[in-house]
User: Fold this.
Amino acid sequence: IELAAARVRSLNTRQIRDRLSDRFRLLGSAKGSGRQSTLEAAIDWSYDLLTPDERALFRRVSVFEGGWTLDAAEALASAAGMSAWDVLDLLDRLVDKSLVIVESLGEASRYGMLESIRHYGRRQLEAALESERWLAWHGDWATGLAERAELALLGPESRVWLDRLEADHDNMRAALGRFRELGDAAALLRLATSLGVFWRVHGYF
Assistant:
């Protein structure tokens, strides 16, 4: 907020909002120095304090949009050759460092990142040349979840799965968007078809 306030001298609040898609450039202040002088420098400072394993998980969970469950994090960790206990310990440490937030939804916990933190994590993922691999994994994960839900919506736990898809709606949209960008019509159709009942029930068509 302080960094955005420095831009009020030359931009109104609507102009600031419209430029938040490139928040690291927008909030790079020419005033001040050190780790608090820009948004990126402030996050750099926290990122540099992480262990290599913490950095790796931090980068990789940035592929999730709108948050993720422990099950999703464990699936990601398994794809990276990590154990479920390892990822739980690492998530605890990232929460303790305020880089990941956690909230309880019913009987389960859901993890997430502030959007600026997630954007930073995605930039680190690209810098580590891991972006293509983990975005592809995210698309496969989203499709698998949607297909499981499609079958479950025919049974007695339909409400549970409708809620689960609602919680992961941003992840589904992100995966659909990536398939569209890649021109992968088969993957796009497969995911969209699996989401059909959910879209119809929740009015998302």
